[in-house]
Amino acid sequence: MNLLHLILTAGPVAKVVLFILIVFSVATWTVIFVKWRQFKTAEKGLKELSSLAEKGLDLADFAHKIKRYKFSPAWKVTRLLLGEVARLRTEGALPTRKELFALWLEMFIKRLNRQLAVGCSRELHPLKEGLPFLAIVGNSAPFIGLFGTVWGIMSAFQQIGLKGSATLATVAPGIAEALIATALGLFAAIPASMAYNFFTVKLDSFEERLNELGELVILLVEKEFMREILCEGEPLFDEEEAPE
């Protein structure tokens, strides 16, 4: 009750400072909760999909088994790459001569790598949202609290000047406002700063693992096409099936 009384009886400037810091604190904890759930959802299936890709399954088998991880970021990136392969086969863009296959495959792998970069960027964007706010709160809240502290000390000295005495009753309200502003500034800044560092590390780790999954899928695609071209005594296409 004493703390609430001090806040209610504080000056208008102190009230504005305290209100901003309280809003920052509530928003910070909201962002922390939301980001925690986002990262937990995003990481679902990532390890399992990487394990499947490492087994060296053929693409049809692999595409069938990843359906259980639908709508996870890892599945979306994998689907984007496999969709590019399916589109290629539909368009009939494979070379008809084995001598050209190595050059064609190199160009197609580069195309898949560009698709991987686009897919990862698209899936990482939602995870990055909210992190700038945590950085802003972590950097600015202590200074806002410091402003409230300075203002409270100025109020205390003003009261000393008006009353001509430096008794505890004269300076206590201003000093109390100053200390409350400092405490709230730190209360908002410390969780925000810690959460920003924590989620930044998790974001970097998730991006690295997502790229690793994409590379494993691209390796599967490369092996699949190499099996087709290196089948002993079998052409890449029958003459009547070769694309024009």
From TrEMBL:
Per its UniProt record, what InterPro entries does this chain match?
A: ExbB/TolQ_transport, MotA_ExbB_proton_chnl
Query: Which GO biological process categories is it annotated with?
Result: protein import
Domain MotA/TolQ/ExbB proton channel stretches: 111-210
Question: Which keywords fit this entry according to its UniProt record?
Answer: Cell membrane, Membrane, Protein transport, Transmembrane, Transmembrane helix, Transport
Q: How does it sit in the membrane?
A: Multi-pass membrane protein
**What main location does UniProt list?**
membrane
* The UniProt record lists the keyword Transmembrane helix: yes
Record's GO cellular component, any one?
Answer: plasma membrane
According to its UniProt record, where is this protein located?
Cell membrane; Membrane
Q: Does the keyword Transmembrane helix apply?
A: yes
Q: Which is a Pfam family this sequence falls into? A: MotA_ExbB
Q: Which residues cross the membrane?
A: 12-34, 131-154, 174-199
Family, similarity comment:
Belongs to the exbB/tolQ family.
Q: Which PANTHER family does the record match to this protein? A: PROTEIN TOLQ, TOL-PAL SYSTEM PROTEIN TOLQ
Q: Under what name is this protein listed?
A: MotA/TolQ/ExbB proton channel domain-containing protein
User: What lineage is on file?
Assistant: Bacteria, Pseudomonadati, Thermodesulfobacteriota, Thermodesulfobacteria, Thermodesulfobacteriales
